Structure of DUF676 domain-containing protein:
Amino acid sequence: MLAAAVVTAASPDHLVVLQHGLYGGASNLAVLRQCLVGIGGDNVLVHLASANEGMTRDGVAAGGRRLAAEIRSVAASAPSLESLSLVGNSLGGLYVRAAAAELYGGGQQELGLAPNTLVTTGCPHLGVRRYTYLPLPPALHSLGGLVAGRTASDLLLRRTDADPRRPLLVEMADPDSRYGVALRSFQRRRLYANLRGDFMVPFGTAAIETGGWAAGVGDGRLVARFAARRDVVFRDVEVCGGRADGIGVVCEQRQERAEEGAEGAEWEEEMRAGLSAVAWDKVGVSFRAAGTLTPLAHNKLPALRREGWRRAFEWVEQAQEGVPVMEDAARFVVGGRGRGGEGRGGESSS
């Protein structure tokens, strides 16, 4: 697989690694890979990470270590490489942040590649303790392990006997930790989040937002408030209003000064404050076919691809609706900009 990936580009200088999510596979982000290759040409080497296939239940840290080892292997096979970008879908967004800490958290260039861009799509940055689609009673959190093992404990911000300190995701949001050092090392950071209708990862956790954002069933009522933010640089009123598909809002959130006392705040707010110590582009996406009663937006966002009999799910979810969003993500990774209005065929309005 590694050899096949390397020969697709003659002398690539930019390595882009794509990481799938929970119970996913390398082919899930095949659409984004195709977009990146089409835009970047021979300058870009796009690698679909496979180290976590079938191994997404043992926690975020373990997945990050496996991904970091895979990146080292790919980088060693292509000596012309100069820079690295990471893209993670869903749980994969946490994996790429954990892998970045393995590669860049010590403040040294162990990998030999300059950290370029970090992008997440539908990633539960703030966990899912308060960000399930429907409010989940705390008494049911202990059942999460049946669904996703140690990974569920990480996502639900549960401390274990083996690690009685702060939950891992809270540690990963600490700007003074090795995770914070690694996050700051990237030149640019962008996240894509569904404004409504995401049953798996509601907008608040995917967009690193608190202050009213919680259970995803209520996301639609808050879209107008988010679209009215002062840092909005692109707004499509048709998408925000649920009358068109694609990118509805692009915010350029500047780096925030760390707030005193944030460490004593509720964990979700502490994570929001910590992760906001760096600048983020926040891209809000919406699909007409995904709403309160049909919350199928999660796999539309990355235009998720599957193999074998599972391809039938693509038809049910109409995952191809996310292709223009992935084209925008590819332009951002390769060219340093994503022109939000092209999220729905080049139209825009303000």
User: Anything to note?
Assistant: The chain has a mean pLDDT of 89.
